[in-house]
Automatic annotation (TrEMBL):
This is Cysteine-rich repeat secretory protein 16. PANTHER family: CYSTEINE-RICH REPEAT SECRETORY PROTEIN 18-RELATED (PTHR32411:SF53), CYSTEINE-RICH REPEAT SECRETORY PROTEIN 38-RELATED (PTHR32411). Belongs to the cysteine-rich repeat secretory protein family. One of its GO terms (cellular component) is extracellular region. Its main location: secreted. It holds the Pfam family Stress-antifung. Residues 39-139, 145-251 form the Gnk2-homologous domain. It is found in: Secreted. It comes from Cardamine amara subsp. amara. PROSITE patterns: GNK2.
Length: 259
């Protein structure tokens, strides 16, 4: 999609920059007012090092970030941009978040990463409705994303028998439904004893093979964080390639994305 060796491509990209940079500034102002872009967590990838202020690395990264903002990725809530010699930037919105909502989350995430991980070559930030990941491609370790995951749960207990088994069954059920969505996203509700539980799953739509990887990714996350989510009234388990959440209340919009 992007070749750093192509001078022509660079030239075109750079000419887009001025326009886009202005847009980005405007978006930042707007999104700072929006509470729907709730911050969840972040991770600065310390092992990938930092770049120098004013370096060509910084300039090129800024350019890539602007290009993503100018693409139509927000329509479908997913964007990936790779410069083989520099970075891989991946951005994904929650499946019910697209268009301006998704764009706003991106602007918030870019600003959030700059503030929380200034000049780190690699960093990840999770918001309620999007995740932004910047990985320095020069660092091969950075490509294996085994460490970048987190679980946040409601400490309140939910007394439901076999909660773990019930959730795992429902999780698989939701994964089966991601097929219907080009966003690899599914949300739904089910009965857990006397309670109604609302759940959601999402995978990166570029995982290959799509369905099996999605299922594997979610199962791994669930296994790894059992102690965090099992028997709780709500939890978010966040990776970069997949994530899931459940609550006792509805938390996603009914609207599905544009197809
Ligand atoms: C905040 O996000 C909501 C959608 O979640 C949107 O309807 C609203 O226009 C946004 N507000 C601002 C100030 O961006
Ligand atoms: C940034 O882009 C320029 C122009 O294509 C290139 O010459 C330079 O090597 C890049 N810098 C880095 C650190 O990749
Ligand atoms: C990537 O690594 C190569 C050789 O290992 C080095 O020459 C190059 O400067 C590095 N690029 C960046 C952006 O760190
Ligand atoms: C979602 O759909 C259900 C029925 O499928 C409806 O009862 C509910 O009001 C809808 N919620 C929103 C936020 O549209």
């Amino acid at each position: 999609m992007y070749s750093s060796s192509s001078v022509a491509t660079r030239f075109v990209l750079i000419s887009i920059l001025a326009v886009v940079a202005t847009q980005l500034l405007l978006m930042r102002t707007v999104s700072s007012l929006n509470m729907t872009n709730a911050y969840l967590n972040h991770k600065c990838l310390v092992s990938q090092g930092k770049y120098k202020p004013g370096s060509s690395y910084e300039e090129n990264l800024t350019l890539i970030i602007s290009i993503i903002a100018s693409e139509d990725g927000f329509v479908h809530g997913y964007s990936n941009f790779e410069d083989p010699e520099l970075v891989s930037v991946t951005f994904q919105c929650r499946g019910d978040s697209f268009g301006s909502k998704c764009r706003s989350c991106y602007a918030t995430a870019v600003a959030g990463l700059r503030r929380r991980c200034p000049r780190y070559k690699g960093a990840i930030i999770w918001y309620d409705q999007c995740v932004l990941e910047i990985i320095s491609t020069n660092n091969t370790e950075g490509k294996i994303d085994k460490d970048n995951k987190v679980c946040m749960s409601n400490p309140k207990k939910m007394n439901v028998d076999s909660f773990r088994e019930k959730w795992m069954t429902f999780l698989d059920n939701l994964v089966g439904r991601t097929f219907k969505s080009r966003y690899m996203y599914a949300a739904g509700d089910t009965r857990f004893g006397t309670k109604k539980l609302y759940g959601m799953v999402q995978c990166r739509n570029v995982l290959e093979p799509v369905y099996k990887s999605c299922q594997q990714c979610l199962r791994n996350l669930a296994m790894q964080f059992q102690d965090c989510w099992n028997g709780k009234q709500g939890a978010r388990v966040l990776g970069t390639s997949c994530n899931f959440r459940f609550e006792l209340y509805p938390f996603v919009s009914n609207k599905s994305g544009p197809n």
